[in-house]
Specification:
- The complex is a heterodimer of chains A (160) and B (306).
- With 160 residues, chain A is mainly alpha-helical.
- Helix content of chain A is 80%, strand content 0%.
- In chain A, α1 runs antiparallel to α5 and α4 packs antiparallel against α5.
- Chain B is of the alpha/beta class and 306 residues long.
- In chain B, α7 runs parallel beside α8.
- Classes of the chains: A mainly alpha (160), B alpha/beta (306).
- At the A-B interface, α5 of A face α3 of B.
Chain lengths: 160, 306
């Protein structure tokens, strides 16, 4: 009986951690996206390296959740395929998905001055997404984690 | 799939692989208009069934298609090739040159980029070994080649001829140092330090950069015996040729002109003729096919051969 009670308790705790990590991954995704934008701004302004070589140089420094999207994009451009749908290993809202996808579709379509301006413009949106993901992590994720732990305790108390 | 095929829209890709690419000089793509292919000097419409003189059923391309071609040709990084774009062309792998027509954006009287692209001219380079054979007896002396100007209207095969001349110089004059000044990357198509087209075993290639840079730095740093360069146009280019030949370097160059009389009367060029900077003048024509030789002239513009 005790074993079963502990399993129930840990199940709630793991659910809480899972939800928490989902929020954390969202935050890390946008953090990496912003870091990628900063790398693009530096490289486009100064060295004018191609997108593919910029991804090659910095790709491994980003969070895994963003790396997956980035590497798929790199594969598409290396094989000269059209960029339409990109895979996201993180839960994004429709508006966030639309902005990130259009960012990659539009990437590299302009001369350096315009390109830098476009990236800076997109960065404003991404900053907003990042800030809201930080706030959600701080407020909602912590709340869900605590809520799951309390649920686990309640379940233990009821079962005992 | 080669580089050119990979950047074309899907409807063109499906017919591209069945086309006689060794005979095709150009693809002309215009937004909302039928695709035209220049086959051996003759313009034909491209349909899903092949090439035809009828515009019915011809494949059409849109503005978006043209934008996508340029985007893909730049490896999705137009800012990285903006210097070329400003000049109105992009050179891609294999020496394929994409000429671009659109709205020119200027700032402080300088071209910053081209936007609203509405026409592309995709030129396919050809490596025609020994195409310079008919002129070799006139442009090659016993110990060294003669400085020669190739005069040709656009699309008559002057770049192909220059490429073969580079190879022939290496082959016939063992160990002569040849320097190719390949401003547009069309002669040798050097990609990442490797020539995509064969310009001979003793040839060095400077890709990109102006002719002014190529001549002044190339002579100092590479000590060439022969310099080969394409599409000489500006007074400074002409002046560099004068300086190079005066310092003992043989120059093979090309210029856009319809016939020898245009050279005789063109500003700056007439002075080169007067000063006998070039020993030979070769005039090309597109009478039957690209690369046809209309005449070879000596330094006094006296006809040597037809």
């Amino acid at each position: 009986m005790m074993g079963f009670v502990f399993v129930i308790f840990f199940a709630f705790v793991i659910l809480g951690i899972y939800i928490y990590r989902g929020y954390r991954t969202r935050k890390m995704f946008f953090e990496s996206l912003l870091a990628f934008c900063n790398h693009l701004l530096t490289e486009i302004s100064f060295s004018k390296n191609g997108i593919s070589s910029i991804i090659e140089a910095y790709g491994s420094s980003y969070h895994l959740s963003f790396q997956k999207t980035l590497m798929h994009y790199k594969h598409l451009i290396d094989t000269k395929q059209d960029i339409a749908d990109l895979p996201f290993s993180v839960r994004l809202k429709d508006i966030e998905k639309a902005h990130v996808t259009s960012f990659f579709i539009e990437l590299g379509r302009h001369g350096s001055i315009e390109e830098v301006a476009k990236i800076q413009n997109k960065k404003v949106f991404f900053d907003g997404f990042y800030n809201s993901s930080c706030a959600a992590l701080k407020k909602d994720a912590s709340m869900y984690l605590k809520f799951c732990i309390i649920l686990g305790i309640v379940a233990v108390v009821l079962l005992l | 799939m080669d580089m050119l095929e990979s950047i074309l829209p899907t409807q063109l890709q499906s017919v591209y692989r069945y086309l006689p690419l060794d005979k095709i000089y150009e693809f002309r793509l215009r937004a909302g208009k039928p695709v035209v292919v220049c086959l051996g000097g003759r313009n034909l419409f491209l349909t899903s069934g092949g090439l035809t003189t009828e515009s019915n059923n011809a494949i059409m391309v849109s503005r978006t298609d043209l934008d996508t071609i340029v985007h893909k040709a730049s490896n999705y990084s137009i800012y990285a090739i903006n210097d070329q774009l400003r000049e109105g062309y992009i050179t891609i792998h294999g020496g394929v040159r994409i000429g671009i027509a659109g709205t020119v954006v200027t700032k402080d009287d300088k071209v910053t980029t081209i936007k609203d692209i509405h026409s592309l001219n995709i030129r396919i380079p050809h490596e025609v070994r020994n195409c310079s054979y008919p002129i070799l007896p006139y442009v090659f002396g016993d110990k060294a080649p003669y400085s020669t100007l190739i005069i040709s209207p656009p699309g008559a095969g002057k770049t192909t001829l220059l490429r073969d001349l580079a190879w022939q110089v290496c082959d016939k004059f063992n160990l002569k140092n040849v320097l190719v000044l390949d401003e547009r990357g069309e002669i040798a198509s050097n990609q990442l330090g490797e020539n995509q087209l064969d310009v001979g075993g003793t040839t060095d290639v400077i890709t990109g950069g102006t002719k002014l840079y190529g001549f002044s730095n190339g002579i100092r740093s590479m000590r060439p015996d022969v310099i080969i360069t394409d599409e000489v146009a500006t007074p400074s280019d002409i002046e560099m040729i004068r300086l190079a030949t005066k310092s003992g370097v043989v120059v093979f160059a090309s210029v856009h002109a319809g016939n020898i009389d245009e050279i005789r009367t063109k500003p700056y060029w007439s002075e080169l003729v007067r000063d006998q900077i070039f020993d030979r003048y070769v005039v090309l024509t597109v009478r039957d096919k690209a690369g046809d030789i209309a005449g070879v002239f000596d330094k006094n513009l006296k006809l040597m051969a037809l």
